Amino acid sequence: MTMRLRACAALLLFLAACATPAPSPRARASRNPRIANLQRAAALPWTDGGRCVVREASQSWSVLVERCYRALDHDRIEFHDTTGRCAVASADAAAVGIGFCVLAAPEIAVGAVIVLGVVVVGFAIKEALDAYELRHAYPEEAGASRGAKVSSQEAEVQRKPKLKPEPAGQDWLPPVPPESPDRERRSECRPVPVRHLGGNDPHNECADRIPNNSFPGWDVLVNGKNFDGLVLINRTLWDIKTDDFEKQPPRSQRFFVRMKLPELRREAKLARDCGYNFVIGVRSAAHKAVLLDEDPTLQVVIMDWC
User: Fold this and answer.
1) Nearest to 232 by CA among 223, 220, 241
2) DSSP 273-295
3) Which long-range contacts (CB under 8 A, 24 or more apart) does 80-84 make?
4) Which of 23, 64, 100, 216 maximizes the CB count within 10 A of its CB?
5) C-alpha distances in angstroms, 141 versus 43, 105, 222?
6) Which residues pair with 239 in a beta bridge?
7) From which domain of life does this come (predicted)?
8) In sequence order, what E strands does 18-87 have?
């Protein structure tokens, strides 16, 4: 009898394990403290677009609230101590301690935090969540790309070591292109983070500092091409140029640009075919001027971050 009971129990456990569904991406995210914090913060209005939240998301929720509390849009939030633990609260400056107490609770009770109006997810939070989704939506492709060797074509575009750049003013960024669901469904248009091409750390560090770069520390593979960066918020792919262009004589500058133009035009077309903007980042006004003189259709930005 005992043996039969044990056999039945083992069978039930086996069937229960088989019936348990695999965890969904959302369930996996809920077990990731950083992503859980970002999802929680996405329901709140932030005056800084969520930059502080993204910066502190790896901390505990209470620490995040403590460090980012002042970045909340307090005019749109009402705090109510539904548990009786923090006393009657409002959102004015005199109640900062009470509001923090309510918001920092491990589990916010229903009705404790009331947001007035519709919340638009802060751009920094949305970008961080989008980046997480991209990294986990296509794990097989990402893994294969990260482990792949650099192709001969990609090796040809590895940059030469560059000297220290001079600061320059940052230009405007292009508008977001129209949505294109058909392009998004094409597997080659899915952005996949891949390892930086090696051999030029200063160049890679400059690429990592592209404003709002969604994948700092990585290149992004789109449509068969490694791009230096991707800004998801405005769907812009970047190619970074960190050479000392302005130190060359004018004739050499023109020759250098004409040598690079075919590849730049090809990159622009690959990006455009997948519904992305394409921007070339350069260090000097001289480089930008010659590029636009040779091809006025290019989008060129003078970088002030490297």
Assistant:
1) 220
2) HTT-EEEEEES-HHHHHHHHHH-
3) 80/111, 80/112, 80/113, 80/114, 81/112, 82/109, 82/110, 82/111, 82/112, 83/109, 83/112
4) 64
5) 31, 40, 12
6) 280
7) Bacteria
8) 77-79
CA 218/CA 281 separation, integer angstroms: 17
Q: Tokens representing 110?
A: 């229903």
Q: What tokens appear for 47 in the block?
A: 């005056």
Q: What is the full per-residue pLDDT of the chain (306 aa) written as tens digits?
A: 545 545 444 444 444 444 444 444 444 545 688 888 898 888 899 998 888 998 888 888 888 888 898 889 888 888 777 666 675 444 443 445 667 787 877 566 566 788 887 777 888 888 788 777 766 654 444 444 444 433 433 433 344 344 334 344 444 444 444 444 444 446 789 898 888 876 678 889 999 999 989 888 899 999 999 999 999 888 999 999 998 898 899 999 999 999 999 999 999 999 999 999 999 999 999 999 999 999 999 999 999 888
Q: Which amino acid is at 99?
A: G
